[in-house]
Amino acid sequence: MAEQKKTVTIIVDGTPHEWPKDKITYAELVTLEFPDYPQHPEITYTVKYKNGHGNKPEGTLSSGGSVKVKEGMIFSVYDTGQS
Fold first, then answer.
1. Is 75:11 a contact under the CB 8 Å cutoff?
2. 70 burial class (0-12, 13-18, 19+ CB within 10 angstroms)?
């Protein structure tokens, strides 16, 4: 029997996204909300999350970071301007 690839639904700025991995990176989150992010790496974004895993249910993700995702986790991504 083939192993079923588990996805979780995460919410990014009010929009549900199916996510197939157990972690998500800062760049992946920003790209979900701002698809042109890879063309504009000079723009700095703030990424906050809540409803995360037990020991770290909420926090801020900085550039280069990643976080373990779980079903129903909520992210907000917003432009903090030029760095």
1. yes
2. middle
Confidence bin at 82 (pLDDT 50/70/90): low
Which of 28, 26, 8 shows the shortest CA–CA distance to 18? 8
Reported pTM: 0.86
pLDDT, position 80: 84
Q: Is the dihedral of CA 68, 18, 65, 73 positive or negative?
A: negative
| pLDDT grade for 40, boundaries at 50, 70 and 90 | confident
How far apart CA 30 and CA 59 sit, in angstroms, is 16
CA angle, corner 26, sides to 21 and 31, nearest 5? 85
Q: Which of 21, 12, 8 is nearest to 50 (CA)?
A: 12
